[in-house]
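Sample intake — SIS domain-containing protein
Collected from: Amycolatopsis coloradensis
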Amino acid sequence: MVSTTERYADVAERLVEAERGNAEQIRKSAELILGVIRADALVFTAGAGHSLAAVAETFYRAGGLACVYPVYHPELLPLHGAQHSTKTERRSGLAEEVLAERAPGPDDLLVVFSTSGVNPYPVELAAGARARGASVIAVSSAASVAAAPKRAATTLIEEASIVLDSHVRPGDSSYPPDAPRTAPLSTVINAFLWNLVLAEVVDLGAAQGVDIPLWRSSNVDGGDEANAALLAKYGARVPALR
């Protein structure tokens, strides 16, 4: 039997691998976000299925970036219909429908979370954003993309300006190590990579004299007051903040 300590060590090793393997990409991603902040633009974040957990991590949370616009369609969320969410992610054309409502422009940035990175929705979303002049960061797994059945003309990795590689194994599961069938790691690693980028943004901002708009917890003294100014600034531009 594998001990809890040994399991934790394996997860910690995966996080270290993700950080070291993406050091340059994390810096470049932070520079893109800093450019968005300087331009008073928005960081759009998107995903489908369980990758929507990463989108939730980016949006309206304590310590999170305030200038985030979550790209969302209810049919992509498993809680609204598990099998239907899978079919929806594979449906070509949905991304353009979503972008028709509100799309990132040249000053904005799109971050797409998709471990397999092959279904039409994330691929077409990235392609559509780039066609509109926006840069695209893909948080994906090169190994998973290589192993997955191709369902779009290209892959998310091919459409991205920058790729943060989660190194998640095909199928996502991590345990047992010799024949993994449970303990998926994509949610953990996606959140970790995003927060590494945010930490780099804060450091770059401090070095360059740029104030980074960050939410505070509404459950600490002064939190509501601090957030009120951010809500006033971004509320009209990000409908999900209302």
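Post-analysis note: DSSP finds ten helices and five strands in the chain.
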